[in-house]
Amino acid sequence: MPSKERVGLAQLKVGILGIVALFFITLLIFLLTGGISWFQKTVPLHVYLNDASGLNSGSPVRINGIPAGKVTEVKLSGETNPARVIKVDFEVDEDMLRQIPSDSIASVASDNLLGSTKYLQIDKGKSQDIVRPGTTMKAANTQEFQQLVQQGFGVLDSAQAILQKITDILNQVEVGKGTIGKLLVDESLYNSLLQTVTQVQQLAT
Fold it and tell me: What is the sign, positive or negative, of the torsion defined by CA atoms of 23, 25, 31, 35?
């Protein structure tokens, strides 16, 4: 009959083996699903924006649509420059750093038309030099786009007013108001006009 010490040692070995096996199974699952990169080194970068536009800590960072990192912090910069109101700190994978030329442009983009999912988009530049760790990247100028959107709203308002006037005119025509309305609705006026045209034709003949 085995002693209590041997039984306890065997149970301890089984417990340690089970914990180690569980650890490696969990690690394998994360590596296969891409849920975490424990051994991936990251490089910090920064960008200043005029509006956070729904960007949050943990939002993805993509280079021309390819996942490259994540946003670590979004905060007010404290500067008075309208183009540098928001400071965005983010990090990219070290092996992706060489894919970011120094003249690349960072901006806030959306995964869908509703704009519910925001991410930081980096559009690759053409420079031969790459950005260095800790660099403050250039941001896209969105002021012209915002002005264009405002002008578009003005055009839509004008178009809506014109459509409303056309609708009012058509409503008046339908009820017989105005010359055109009476001509379309009043049969006596139509018959009188037809007689006049007939007399003119006879006179011309």
Answer: negative
